[in-house]
Amino acid sequence: MRTPSAANGFDDRVPRDGQVETMTTHLERRPEQIDEDRWIYVREMDKHFGGDFLVLSNVNLTVRKGEVVCIVGPSGCGKTTLLNIVAGFEEPSGGICEIAGEAIHEPGPERGFVFQRPALFPWMTVLQNVTIGPRVCGVARNDWLKRAEHLLGETGLSQFKDHYPYQISGGMAQRVQLVRVMMNEPSVVLMDEPFGALDYQTRLSMHQLLLSLHAEYRPTILFITHDVDEAVFLADRVAVMKRAPGEIVRELPIELDRPRALRHYATKEFAAYKETILGLLGFH
Length: 284
Ligand SMILES: Nc1ncnc2c1ncn2[C@@H]1O[C@H](COP(=O)(O)OP(=O)(O)O)[C@@H](O)[C@H]1O
Ligand SMILES: [Mg+2]
Description:
About 35% of the residues lie in helices and about 20% in strands. The protein is of the alpha/beta class. The protein folds into 2 domains: about 35-110 and about 185-280, 3-Layer(aba) Sandwich (Rossmann fold); about 120-175, no CATH class. The longest helix is centred in the C-terminal third of the chain and has 18 residues, at about 200-215. It binds adenosine-5'-diphosphate (ADP) and magnesium ion.
């Protein structure tokens, strides 16, 4: 089983006597040799539940380091299952699923997961919630405090750092979850309809916030949504899935310039992307 020992998840164990094989394997996987065009690499992946219930069939997806890929598809087509496999919460039944050249078998610190519901600890303040990871890992207080203060400032949460979850709004709670994930400096952020429960205006501000965090920290983002506008606005590429058994039927590069802004919604290109995706989802 993999034992990621560094923050980026790479296995940097030093070989002991008689472990020449391990050394070779380790050297073969030096970070600089990892193909950044295949940061997330899913090939011919299937997933069955309970023996004969085929949820995902022949899923192929390659995501470059730093890319934002949105996945859209009808309810029940297996979007969450796909994300859970990349997260390491579920095992695939067949095929390849890798992050940074390593097969995924379990969750790892290089992958952050943003759930639809923020799942904050109600007995902890905002600051305690966002720093739980580094505090549990024994990171020096000065290091996590500096990073937390910076991220809380960027997300407009500084003045709420001593509030408890019941004292903040749904949008703020989702920002807290995002900060908690970014505290671990993930190379991959996996997001499962994270803004689906928020009102429209809050969702728009979350899009701006996510893209500004992405521009600064450049994580690879795999983002699931049923909202086609959201997918086009955020993504470098949109992957469209079909109904069960789930499969990616088309990938559409989104060539809108960055930084993305409100004006993009009014462009012909935006409308054309939206029409194509809705067509692939069966709307005419
Ligand atoms: N742990 C599980 N055991 C059995 N069936 C499951 C499990 N998780 C999901 N499913 C089924 O797999 C299908 C796809 O689910 P899901 O990945 O949640 O779809 P989506 O996120 O696209 O709505 C659904 O029919 C769901 O009921
Ligand atoms: Mg889902």
